[in-house]
Specification:
The structure holds two protein chains of two kinds. Chain A has 16 helices and 13 strands. Chain A is of the alpha/beta class. Chain A folds into two domains: 22-147 and 289-353, Periplasmic binding protein-like II (D-Maltodextrin-Binding Protein, domain 2, 3-Layer(aba) Sandwich), CATH 3.40.190; 148-288 and 363-383, D-Maltodextrin-Binding Protein, domain 2, CATH 3.40.190.10. In chain A, strands 1, 2, 3, 6, 9, 10, 11, 12 and 13 form a nine-stranded mixed sheet that branches. In chain A, strands 4-5 form a two-stranded antiparallel sheet. In chain A, helix 8 crosses helix 16. By secondary structure, chain B is mainly alpha-helical. Chain B is 78% helix and 1% strand. Chain B has helices spanning 2-35, 45-85, 89-94, 103-114, 119-128, 140-165, 168-176, 181-192, 194-209, 213-218, 226-237, 240-269; strands at 37-38, 41-42. In chain B, strands 1-2 form a two-stranded antiparallel sheet. Classes of the chains: A alpha/beta, B mainly alpha.
């Protein structure tokens, strides 16, 4: 009897221990939704998740991709809105990666929270994209993951002395009709950025278009600006999307065209791009944009989400993944990133466009309402 | 007994009916409703904007689609007539091939094939010994070419089915009276298979006007078809109002056809009996 009692006691003690042990390292799944191409999803799934799970073995990262462009952000916003409308206390999404447009929409609808006060990496950011997005104050709500930039790619075999500004480009296309190509505004953001750059170049109110305030009166000179763009388009080839411009450059159909720098270098690294083609940012500047990390208002695992943002924003990770593997420009100042980069990588990604160029000519996207007006204006005055 | 039968009958169709109501009728009504809402109020602003910016695109959609249907009908009737008179297994299998290729692949393949320095032109420039040829990949010609390529097998399948189902005795009778093959096709086969040809035409129309992938891959940047504009409104402006207005406009275009089709069928059968 006594022996049986002892066994029972030990059994209870062991069970208690087992339960306690199970309890202490909280097992959880960190769900993140990512707007962007498949490469963004792969980046988190195969590169970041293993690194993070090494530090926090109790966490399992689940990545959901929603596709490229503002449409991808759009889907994330809809998902968060559904979570909000359901009235749940804990939302199923812990971390999102969205475009600036998405960030602005999310803040307007109260879908994301302020969190960057607790983020070390925020101090290393120098481009003020963490404070303003499309003219909206987003300070505290977002931390950039990287910056991407549009530039003009040109084939030095045909173009010995590329135009350095929009004004020179206008002259150039008249001498070389059909040899400059871009994808309009419905086939991807590289064309859209080119059009925004055009408006920045022509408008008297460029600063207001970028920083606000929004008022239709600052759009008064637009009919003239777009009429000139329509005239410019007569000398231009229309390509099929961001990839279409790169393809046409490769095939020699066009000699110049706007591209996303990261896409351009990635294609080159993978051997899909003529390695002789080079890039330049036109004066007075072309737009680029960051992708932002944001944490949903009622994320169940906001604490771990913050840790993940911290990890990706750290100089070493920015160097290894953001710059070296994916050819983006870093979210934080280059000064912190360069020590971790090899000479090869440094020379490649900063060969044509230096950080100084980026700071000088890398313009933000316009204020959201101006941005939409600019796109609609193109439909009305250029396409129609 | 009668009542019980009716209840059982109703229960039997209930699942199908519910699915239709939930997945089709409800979204349809919602889309129509949303097209009249602007900033939380009932208004026609979305339609005003849709017609202001996109009237040319709407017209373009109808024209491109109609021309596609025209080409598709001619080609598929030719193909079906040929196969009706002559058994050729190779062609019989080959013409169906495009049916099994996804639109995305077709779009991409055509865009490479028809690009200014694409496969077709690379070949032609070598044969013709010229420097440059214009590409068709971003023009209405390329678009039309691709649509016809994709849609013809589908229409041909329907039309050939009807041609083959036709009783041979009519054709033999005509032949005995000395009619040529062409004459038989035009005076006997086509008139007798008119309902099937109409079905093929309408299905081709609906499939063409609602397609998006091919347009995005190979269509010109401007003018564009309605579906691309809808995508653009949603993706770039988060503007469901105008997108839905455009959707309703394309419903209306298709409904015109549907009504015509029902009338036509009714006339063929001497009125719908019900």
């Amino acid at each position: 009897m006594k022996r049986a009692f002892t066994v029972l006691l030990i059994a209870v003690a062991v069970m208690g221990l087992l339960i306690a042990q199970e309890d202490i390292p909280v097992k959880l799944t960190l769900t993140m939704m990512v707007a962007g191409d498949q490469n963004m999803v792969d980046f988190f799934q195969y590169e970041i998740a293993p690194e993070f799970e090494k530090v926090y073995p109790n966490v399992k990262i689940k990545v959901v991709g929603t596709g490229p462009g503002d449409a991808g952000s759009q889907q994330i916003i809809q998902q968060l809105q559904l979570e909000k409308d359901s009235g749940k206390d804990k939302w199923a999404v812990d971390l999102v990666v969205i475009h600036e447009t998405g960030a602005v929409w999310a803040i307007e609808r109260g879908l994301i929270r302020q969190y960057t006060d607790f983020l070390t990496a925020k101090r290393l950011a120098i481009r003020n994209t963490d404070e303003m997005a499309l003219g909206v104050n987003v300070d505290g709500y977002v931390m950039p993951m990287f910056h991407s930039q549009t530039a003009i790619a040109y084939n030095p075999r045909f173009v010995k002395d590329p135009p350095k500004s929009y004004a020179e480009l206008v002259e150039w296309v008249k001498k070389n009709p059909g040899k400059f190509g871009y994808n309009g505004i419905k086939g991807g953001m590289s064309g859209v950025s080119f059009v925004f750059g055009w408006v920045y170049y022509k408008s008297k109110n460029t600063d207001i278009l970028i920083n606000g305030p929004y008022d239709k009166k600052y759009e008064e000179d637009w009919p003239q600006i777009y009429a000139e763009l329509k005239e410019f388009n007569k000398y231009v080839t229309m390509t099929a999307g961001n990839a279409g411009t790169l393809d046409a450059l490769n095939r020699g159909e066009i000699w110049m065209g706007p591209v996303w720098v990261d896409m351009f270098y990635t294609w080159m690294r993978e051997g899909r791009m003529d390695p002789n083609i080079r890039i330049i940012i036109l004066a007075p500047g072309m737009p680029g944009q960051p992708m932002h990390f944001a944490i949903p208002t009622k994320a169940a695992n906001a604490d771990y989400a913050l840790k993940l943002v911290e990890l990706v924003s750290s100089p070493k990770m920015q160097a290894k993944y953001i710059v070296e593997r994916f050819n983006w420009y870093p979210a934080i100042s280059d000064d912190f990133v360069t020590p971790y980069l090899t000479k090869d990588v440094l020379e490649k990604i900063y060969k044509d466009v230096k950080q100084a160029d980026l700071l000088k000519y890398g313009k933000p996207m316009p204020l959201l309402p101006y941005k939409q007006d600019m796109q609609e204006a193109y439909e009305k005055w250029v396409e129609k | 007994m009668e009542v019980r039968n009716r209840i059982v009958g109703f229960l039997l169709i209930l699942p199908a009916f519910l699915i239709l109501a939930l997945l089709y009728v409800y979204p349809l009504i919602r889309a129509i409703w949303m097209s009249f809402i602007k900033d939380g109020f009932l208004s026609l602003a979305n339609y005003a904007k849709a017609f202001d910016i996109y009237s040319r695109d709407i017209l373009y959609s109808v024209v491109i689609t109609s021309v596609t249907v025209g080409f598709v009908l001619v080609l598929s009737i030719l193909l079906a007539s040929y196969l009706r008179f002559k058994e050729w297994r190779f062609l019989d299998i080959m013409y169906r091939l495009p049916l099994f290729i996804p639109f995305l692949i077709v779009g991409h393949a055509m865009r490479i094939f028809l690009a200014p320095h694409g496969t077709l032109n690379s070949l032609l420039t070598r044969i013709l010994k010229v420097e440059e040829l214009p590409g068709f990949s971003r023009s209405w010609i390329g678009l039309l070419w691709t649509f016809v390529w994709v849609m013809t097998p589908y229409a041909a399948l329907i039309i050939l089915g009807a041609f083959r189902a036709l009783d041979s005795s009519y054709i033999e009778a005509a032949r005995n009276l000395g009619a040529s093959k062409g004459k038989i096709v035009f005076t006997v086969i086509i008139p007798m298979c008119k309902p099937s040809i109409m079905v093929a035409a309408i299905l081709t129309f609906v499939r063409t006007i609602s397609s998006l992938t091919i347009l995005v891959m190979i269509g010109p940047n401007t003018p564009n078809m309605i579906t691309v504009d809808m995508m653009f409104r949603i993706n770039f402006f988060n503007d469901w109002g105008v997108a839905n207005a455009l959707g309703v406009i394309s419903y209306l275009i298709v409904i015109v056809l549907a009504v015509y089709y029902l009338r036509f069928m009714a006339a063929e059968r001497g009125g719908i009996k019900g």
